[in-house]
UniProtKB/TrEMBL annotation:
This is PaaI family thioesterase. It comes from Emergencia timonensis. NCBIfam families: unchar_dom_1 (TIGR00369). GO terms for molecular function: fatty acyl-CoA hydrolase activity. Belongs to the thioesterase PaaI family. InterPro entries: ACOT13, HotDog_dom_sf, PAAI_dom, Thioestr_dom. Residues 93-164 form the Thioesterase domain.
Length: 184
C-alpha cells in the first residue's frame, strides 16, 4: 500500500513539474519579440507544442525553447535548460543527451524550414568542452536543402559564457509533407 501511495505522489510530482515547465515556456514565448522570421517562428512553435502534448516522450522532456530563426538565413536557435535527469556522474550534460539535443533541434528546424517530415540519416557530434553550465543555446545552420535531403551543422553554446562546447553535423532525408505526416 505504501509503495502504491509513493508511486502516486511521484506521478503527481511529475505532472506538477510538467505544468510548471509549460508555464515557464509560455512566459519565454511571450518574451520572444526579436525573432527574425515570425512566420517560421510560428511553425516551430507549433512543432514544439506538438512535442509538449506527448509528455512521456524525450522531445517533450528536452523542453527546448525557440530563441531565434530565419528561413532566409537558414538557421534556428533553441535554448535548453539543464535538468537533473540529463546529467552524467560528473554533473555535466551526458553525451547521449547532447547528441539528442542536436538530433532533435536540428531535426525540428529541418521540418519547419522544409515543410517536410524528416528522418535522421547520419549525425556526428564533437565534444569540445564539458557542458557544466545551466543553459545552452543550440544553433542549427542548414548548409544544403535539396528535394530529398537536408544537411545541417550545429553548435551547443553556453548561454552564460558564449563558449562553444559541442558541434554537430547531421543529414536528414525528407519524406512526406508536414501536413500529411501529422494527419492521424
Amino acid at each position: 500500500m505504501t509503495a502504491i501511495l509513493l508511486y502516486h505522489i511521484h506521478l503527481l510530482n511529475l505532472r506538477f513539474q510538467s505544468k510548471c515547465d509549460k508555464i515557464y515556456c509560455s512566459l519565454n514565448r511571450m518574451e520572444m519579440t526579436a525573432v527574425k522570421d515570425k512566420e517560421l517562428a510560428k511553425e516551430i512553435e507549433e512543432i514544439l507544442e506538438d512535442n509538449r502534448q506527448q509528455s512521456e516522450r524525450l522531445n517533450c522532456r528536452l523542453n527546448l525553447q525557440l530563441v531565434d530563426c530565419s528561413r532566409e538565413e537558414g538557421f534556428v536557435e533553441f535554448a535548453f535548460d539543464v535538468k537533473e535527469w540529463c546529467l552524467n556522474p560528473y554533473n555535466g550534460v551526458h553525451g547521449g543527451a547532447i547528441c539528442t539535443l542536436f538530433d532533435t533541434g536540428l531535426g525540428m528546424g529541418a521540418v519547419a524550414i522544409t515543410q517536410k517530415m524528416v528522418s535522421t540519416t547520419d549525425i556526428s557530434v564533437s565534444f569540445l568542452k564539458p557542458m557544466n553550465g545551466k543553459r545552452y543555446i543550440i544553433r542549427a545552420e542548414y548548409t544544403q536543402i535539396g528535394r530529398r535531403m537536408a544537411r545541417s551543422v550545429g553548435k551547443a553554446i553556453d548561454a552564460e559564457t558564449g563558449v562553444v562546447c559541442a558541434t554537430s553535423m547531421a543529414s536528414f532525408v525528407l519524406t512526406e509533407s508536414r501536413a500529411k505526416g501529422l494527419q492521424v
